[in-house]
Structures are given as C-alpha cells and as structure tokens.
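Course assignment 3, question 2. Fill in each field.
Student: A.L.
Task: Predict the tertiary structure for the chain below.
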Amino acid sequence: MHTIVLATQKGGSGKSTLAIGLALAAKNAGHNVRLIETDPQGTLSNWQSRRGTAEPMVEAIYNVGRIETRLEQLDCGGVTLTIIDTASGVSAITASAIRCADLCLIPSRPTITDIESSAATLKAVRAWRKPFAFVLNQTPVRGRRMDNATQTLGGDDARAMSEMIARPFISMRNDHQDALASGLAVSEYAPGGKSAEEIAQLWRWTEARLNGGAFELDARSEASSPARPEAGTSQAAQPAPAQPPPGRLDGLAPWDACL
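Answer field:
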C-alpha cells in the first residue's frame, strides 16, 4: 500500500479538494482507496456526508497514536492507496502522518506568501527524509505569476523542477468547489472538463513518482502550461548540480532560506 500525505502550513491551499480529486482518479485507475482526515475542520467528512456511501470512504482520525496502526490495518485489508488530508500547520498528528508517508505533496498557491509559508512543512518532511513535491494549485490560467512561482521553487534547473514540482499545475476553476458542494470529485462533476483532465494527469504524475518512474505530461496540457523547460532541453540528460541555485521572487530571499 502507498500512503500520500497532503500537508502545508498555510490554510486555503486546497489540500482537501486535491485529496478528493486524487482519490477518485486513483480509484478510476483501479486502486482500492481510503481517505483519512486529520483536520478537525472536517472538510472531507462533510463531503462524505453529502456523498453518501459511495467510495472512497473517509475516516476521521484525530489521535496521533492511531495513524500508524490504522495504516497497517488498511494495508492488511487490501487497500492499495491511502491519502491523508491534514490540518494547516505542523502538529503532532501531521508529523506522525508525514513519518508514515511514501510521498508528501505540499499544495501552494502561486504567491510568495504561500511559498514562503511552506518552509515549516518542508522542514518537517526533510526531518523524516520523505520524498516530496509541491503542487501549484488554484493557479491563474496564464500569466507571469506562474513563471515566478516555479522559478522560486525550482530555480532555473529543469531537473529540480521535474522532481520538486508536480505537473500539471491545477488551475483555478469553479467546478472544483461546485463538485465539493455536491459530494462529488471534479472528475464526476465535469468528467469532460479541463479540471478533470488536470487532476487525472496529476494522479499519473504522482503514481509515477511513487513507483520511481518518470511521467511525460500530455502534449495538450504542456502546451497550455506556463513555465515549462525550453524546447530541446532534456531533463534526463541534464545532471543535477550539487547545490541547485535558489530561485528568487521580486527581489525577496530564497524560499527555503530559513531551513
């Protein structure tokens, strides 16, 4: 069983909607999926109430000592993927979830305040030496803000971007919130829409990362995605520098300068 944890310091980054979207995309790909909610705000539990008994089911766990035991039980019970949605900040139960993760996804809106606030979460992830990636969420469809955000996170190094920043970016569209209000995932609410396509590709990127492989972004999404490496640049052939140059945004300090 694989375990994905969505965590970030700042609220409003869209952890819950991403957790739901990825869970349904994984289920559609044949996984037996369970959602675990550790956020007392109860976004996933409320979504499940509106949804009824349809899979995937949501479990609320607020006891720090229950996370590891429950994951072992789910693994023995045939669950192949568990996605844990955490509260904002770094609490004891979030730290416990990170410790059990196979991959940590750190959602961030493409603003300097969101990116800077992710430093505390990243410090906890690195403390447990867990694989991680940023998910740029609620992004404008186009504009220089995306270029700035990706440069801040990954610098100018294409290899660093391919490993640290999940693709594609998830654009801000109303169907995510409309689906949430209806007890649906966006792939159920608008299965032919661009949001559903982005989430499906994000799942394929995530699955490839979990399995240690590479994922080629669909050409249609790549063509519309800002801040991609220049044509002709081979990510696989480009060696990773020992110390990737930190990106800067609007003259501010590097995003991980405090780590």
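Instructor remarks: The longest strand covers residues 103-108. The chain has twelve helices and six strands.
Grade: pending
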